[in-house]
Amino acid sequence: MIAFSRFRQLLCFVLAVTAAISLTLGIYYWRFFLRPGVAWLVVSVEGLSLIRSTWSLIRKPAFAIPQPVASEAIGLFVLFPFHLIIALLISTLSAKHGNHDHNLGFTMLRVFTMSGAILHMIYTIGLVAIAVLTVPAFDPDVWLRDVDSTPSPFPLAIIFAFAFPCLARRFESTRAFVRQSALPGDQCLPTCLLDCNIHGAKALGRVVPARERVCGGHQCCLMCL
């Protein structure tokens, strides 16, 4: 199975290539755009996307600077709405009247721009979603971790077991990561005192006054507090 860091680097490379091609085509066909505002938008967003993808790709290998998950997510999220706008407007992209010879070039621009926008949005949503799931499932400080660290800051087996416990129990590789359900109210944990009377009272629906709590102050388990 491909490592997450390799997959991310490959994805950043693809995003950088599509952005570079879109930027080049946008600059070349600038004067043939029917609406100059769209040309400005395409060139600006693709240029920023190229810079972001390239920096994310070479930051650690070339400069030994870790890439925090939060930094990667913020960079993606900032460009997300602009890629969404491009994806919505790209279908209306057309050349000026009388420049039908450039229709092929504009078609290529549409394809690469749309592909880059879709990949960017999928990557953004996927990274944020998996990081949000990692916080309660494994690591509350995942936003500060290096996104390319080894092992990966996103243990997929643990995240899958947290998000889909019923399915995870069916697979040997994820069964061990399924969290056990809480003990019923009438059962004590092994660390409880022998004369603990809290859980039995909870099972009967009776609130035990603080002065009667035998295990009060010992914090024998979360249910005793």
TrEMBL record:
Keyword presence, Transmembrane helix: yes
Q: Mark the transmembrane ranges.
A: 73-95, 107-133, 153-171
Specify whether Membrane is a keyword of the entry: yes
Its keywords, alphabetically, are: Membrane, Transmembrane, Transmembrane helix
Q: Which domain of life is it from?
A: Eukaryota
Q: What is this protein called?
A: Uncharacterized protein
